[in-house]
Amino acid sequence: MAEIDTGTADLLARLEGGVLTLTLNRPEARNAMSGEMNAALAEQLAWAELAGEVKCVVLTGAGNGFCAGGDVKGMASRGDGTVGDQTIDAAIHRQRVNQRATSGKLFKMPKPTLAALPGPAAGAGLSLALACDMRIMSRTAFMTTAFARVGFSGDYGGTYFLTQLVGSAKARELYYLSERVRAEDALRLGLTNWVCEPEELQAKAAEIAARLAAGPTVAYRYMKENLNRAMAGEVDDCLDLEATHHVHCGQTADHREAAQAFVEKREPVFTGR
After folding, report:
1. pLDDT for the residue 81
2. Contacts for 158 with CB less than 8 Å, ≥ 6 apart
């Protein structure tokens, strides 16, 4: 296991067995985002995308929360939630860069990403969770868009991810009314893949991440691209892309190993080649 220096106490990073675990670490503020946290998260995700030793990324929160989103108390003290001492155009550009480097990277990087929610995911924190490929929640956790309660329209891709997962009408309800979605309801709606007891969350997340890290990385790369493009693509485009990726994967050592393992009635050992 290797602890990674992120340059800030607001984000912890650990690499073990091909799994990069990133922990949002401001428990006293329900892991609300800070500038230092966002910058470190962007840096770690950019590295993880290209690092061969990283097979899977897990995003979680310290203490009893996942992420409360933006630091509303900090916004209140500044009197401005978005611009500060920047021009509005500079603020918009900076926000775009931040979003693409964090939630956008979680969604698009060619590796599996998993969000583990020990507690509430709200606002942009919910967006980060929804950007991941899959989610696991503690039974005591909940999700809420929260933006309407603080006069915001929403950021970090939440409107896109939520609409894709639950449909437009339900997404509008959750954004307009900002009600809490309990873990059991999140499971029913398809917002989370698993719900477990609080004391089981860490072990369950580690189990899932280990399975992903041991999987066929080349196939996962193309599988994720297929699935992402299918969300907004035309059917013929998806069919053609699947054909290209399927034939390519058939040429990999991982496929040959898996086929041989099937014949020999054993589990395959994937090497990512």
Report:
1. 55
2. 123, 124, 126, 127, 130, 145, 147, 175
